């Protein structure tokens, strides 16, 4: 018997990044996991990684987790509901209302289905990128609907808590509007910004620093997957983009004549609004506490970054966050160390005493 909240077995359909990570996390708690995928190679890889055992016709799963692309999620969920009439079924697609609507239209038994969505991932996909701790501390939305009881859906909550995630309850509509704002539109903006670099002069692109990398990081995401996601959540995404277009129009109008009365004030108000908005984003441990950044120059040699982190610990300052950037043209990395504001002066002084070069 497993020592976690779930008794198992848990059937995972789709052994990509999310499916294999879920399976690895459950196996770490000694929960029986069976694996299925249209790709036999993915199943074998996931089994070799210790994520579970291949599914068989004799399985009687307690819970089924569907981890397949958004455009086939409803079809696969309906198939699983029909094949396992005693099991509860969930999916991890990033859009929830379209899946539920399609299942209802098909006549599927949605009394045994509840959608969910872990807001976690990596820039690489596939089973080899999977991690058992991928969901630890990450939000995982449960999108409840009227046809399913809280008692019947309890296994979904158990799954989320067993994997160390933070359970968030929302309706499918609330979820889709939320991810449109914080995930789907940022993807569009990032991609369109990165697209400006295609015909940009090399001299301009070579000036890129951490700021533009931050803005365009997710532009490297899989276009095929995002076509599916954006198509399934088109209305909420369009609503946010229309408001964003209005913001851009105001900004463009202000820049048309910076000397016009009120133009600089408009620019300042728009930029200041960004300060207010970003302050609402949760920080470390779900808080909105702001940190001070110290930029330390680190020689590009083995062991130097490890030495910096060890010495920060010796000084007695807690590292809140860390980002590493390479200085163009020289063998030096710039470690952006984030600490509580009250610790910044002490840490700066101590690091300088120990020979570290502080760049900012």
Topology:
Layout: E1 10-13, H1 17-27, E2 33-36, H2 40-48, E3 53-54, E4 63-66, H3 70-83, E5 88-91, H4 97-106, E6 115-118, E7 139-143, H5 154-162, E8 166-170, H6 172-195, H7 202-205, H8 210-216, H9 223-232, H10 234-256, H11 263-279, E9 292-299, H12 304-315, E10 321-326, E11 332-339, H13 341-353, E12 357-358
Parallel strand pairs: 1-2, 1-4, 2-3, 4-5, 7-8
Antiparallel strand pairs: 6-7, 9-11, 9-12, 10-11
Helix pairs in contact: 3-4, 6-10, 10-11
Which key phrases capture this entry?
alpha/beta; five-stranded parallel β-sheet; Prephenate dehydrogenase; prephenate dehydrogenase (NADP+) activity; four-stranded antiparallel β-sheet; 16% strand; Alpha-Beta Plaits; 13 helices; oxidoreductase; Rossmann fold
In summary, what is this structure?
By secondary structure, the chain is an alpha/beta fold. Helix content is 45%, strand content 16%.
Q: Average pLDDT across residues?
A: 90
Helix content bin: 40-55%
| Overall SS class | alpha/beta
- Stated plainly, the CATH topology of the largest domain is called Rossmann fold
The biggest sheet, with number of strands, parallel, antiparallel or mixed sense and barrel status, is:
5 strands, parallel
Number of helices: 13
**What is the CATH class name of the largest domain?**
Alpha Beta
| Oligomer status | single chain
CATH architecture group name of the largest domain: 3-Layer(aba) Sandwich
What does this structure look like?
The protein has 360 residues and is α/β, with parallel strands linked by helices. It has 3 domains: 10-170, NAD(P)-binding Rossmann-like Domain (Rossmann fold); 177-279, 6-phosphogluconate dehydrogenase C-terminal like domain (6-phosphogluconate dehydrogenase C-terminal fold, Orthogonal Bundle), CATH 1.10.3660.10; 286-358, Alpha-Beta Plaits (2-Layer Sandwich), CATH 3.30.70. Helix content is 45%, strand content 16%. The protein is built from 13 helices and 12 strands. It has a 5-stranded parallel beta sheet with strand order 3-2-1-4-5, sandwiched between helices. Strand 4, helix 3 (70-83) and strand 5 form a beta-alpha-beta unit. Helix 3 crosses helix 4 (97-106), helix 6 crosses helix 10 and helix 10 packs antiparallel against helix 11 (263-279). The longest helix has 24 residues, at 172-195. The N and C termini lie far apart (55 Å). The relative contact order is 0.08. Residues 8-285 form the Prephenate/arogenate dehydrogenase domain.
